[in-house]
Amino acid sequence: MLQSVKEKQQNSQSAQSQVLNQTFDYVKKLNNFEDKEAFSMARELLREQENLTEFESAMLNNLNTDNVDEAKTLIPSIRDKFTDEELEQLLGRLSDYQSEQ
Question: pTM here?
Answer without folding.
Answer: 0.68
